[in-house]
Amino acid sequence: MEKSNGLRVILFPLPLQGCINPMFQLAKILLSRGFSITVIHTRFNAPKASSHPLFSFLEIQDGLSEAETRTHDVTLLLTRLNRSCESPFRDCLTKLLQSETEEEKQRISCLIDDSGWIFTQPLAQSLNLPRLVLNTYKVSFFVGHFVLPKLRRERYLLLQAEEFPPLRKKDLLRILGEETEVLDSYSDMILKTTKASSGLVFVSSCEELDEDSLSQARQEFQVPIFAIGPSHSYFPGSSSSLFRPDETCIQWLDKQEDNSVIYVSFGSVVTISESELLEIAWGLRNSGQPFLWVIRVGMVNGTKWVEAIPEELMERLTEKGKIVKWAPQQEVLKHRATGGFLTHNGWNSTVESVCEGVPMICLPSVWDQLLNARFVSDVWMVGLHLEGKIERNEIERVVRRLLLEHEGELVRERMKRLAEKVGRSVKQNGLAYRSLQHLVDYLSSF
Ligand code: UDX
């Protein structure tokens, strides 16, 4: 770790697992480069301060009721949070800046927060504080999704859906069908506030994964853009889980053969129905392959955990498989026994899988996941796509194709090459590594 450079960075993560991990990874990188870190966070999904003794934490009231925090509607949750956090965040930041003038030894360099916070840009501007926007999506998605409101208004364009590769017409119809005016105006605000910011940091992208869209993003936003590559590569295994990972996964994996296990996880937000749960269960069981399956508490609509799986089926499942509530995902993907990842293609999961060279089975649910999945299956060709078919025979078949057949070997070979390419990017003199260096220089210049 470098010695302190006398500068403090304020971080303000969105309280979602997919946003907290990358933000804390960035925090660790900046700390190792001599910056001090203060994290302002909501009460809802508060990070564990005790896991990060070198950071300072300040909690703000988010005004959400218990029932409001349980919603599965992420857009609703984020718009509510933006409304209720504005005033407490302003008070907290103003106090921090005042204490800075009293304590001259450490200067606050800037605020870094998620693109999903739309009130922070005008606030930072009014306080004369540079604000950088952290982005946890794939660059192509971030750039592309701003055309969605227009597309939604001009639905006839759907006839030319082939103009949005690698999305297929059916993906676009799903994306456009999902959301409404609330999301459109939220997206418009994200675009506006990002353009007004002092810079844009992509923590899980690099030239190797996003070459075309990075140049497009530079044109569109006209602010410095940093693509520092898969941030967890700089500090492997350092996840900031909101849930407690079940560490017995690793002992269980130790007992399995190389590349034999299919790891199944749908991230921290996606939910499925009882019948989908049963189809996946039967598919995994019938594939005959060992599997490690994350079923979050509350993931299956209308039930608490796995009650919908009949006892007899559960007995058969546990002969070859293991079901947990939350896994140490990065360690699981790193394990020699893990041969494939049945995933919803959240961007973090996708990148973590790429970094460990684990080929995927794509089962995207919503939003950016549909685009990420197409990159995996159609552009990089490092995974097989289920095409939304949550059906036991399809699942059994795709698991066997990936783990047992020649087709799977070819996919694995291509994934290995992609993993090596991305791995080189975060090493000294790699493109992502150099971008990180530019970011550190930029933050030091404020
Ligand atoms: C959300 C959105 O759903 C996704 O579309 C977007 O790309 C990012 O924000 P989420 O659904 O949680 O994210 O998925 P993902 O991006 O894959 O992030 C999940 C994170 O939780 C990963 O870092 C993963 O390692 C971690 N995880 C997941 C665990 O540590 N253990 C688990 O059991 C499951």
Name the descriptors.
48% helix, binds uridine-5'-diphosphate-xylopyranose, six-stranded parallel sheet, Rossmann fold, seven-stranded parallel sheet
Write the topology of this structure:
Layout: E1 7-12, H1 17-32, E2 36-42, E3 56-60, H2 66-69, H3 74-102, E4 107-114, H4 120-126, E5 131-135, H5 139-144, H6 148-153, H7 169-178, H8 181-195, E6 199-202, H9 207-221, E7 225-227, H10 248-254, E8 261-265, H11 274-287, E9 291-294, H12 311-320, E10 321-324, H13 329-334, E11 338-343, H14 347-355, E12 360-362, H15 368-379, E13 383-385, H16 392-404, H17 406-425, H18 431-444
Parallel strand pairs: 1-2, 1-4, 2-3, 4-5, 5-6, 6-7, 8-9, 8-11, 9-10, 11-12, 12-13
What does it look like?
InterPro entries: UDP_glucos_trans. Belongs to the UDP-glycosyltransferase family. Keywords: Glycosyltransferase, Transferase. It holds the Pfam family UDPGT. One of its GO terms (molecular function) is quercetin 3-O-glucosyltransferase activity. The chain has two domains: 247 residues, Glycogen Phosphorylase B (Rossmann fold, 3-Layer(aba) Sandwich); 177 residues, Rossmann fold (3-Layer(aba) Sandwich), CATH 3.40.50.2000. It contains 18 helices and 13 strands. The strands form two sheets. Strands 3-2-1-4-5-6-7 form a seven-stranded parallel sheet, with helices on both faces. Strands 10-9-8-11-12-13 form a six-stranded parallel sheet, with helices on both faces. The chain is α/β, with parallel strands linked by helices. Strand 1, helix 1 and strand 2 form a beta-alpha-beta unit. Helix 11 packs across helix 12. Bound molecules: uridine-5'-diphosphate-xylopyranose. Uridine-5'-diphosphate-xylopyranose (UDX) binds next to helix 1, helix 13, helix 14 and helix 15.
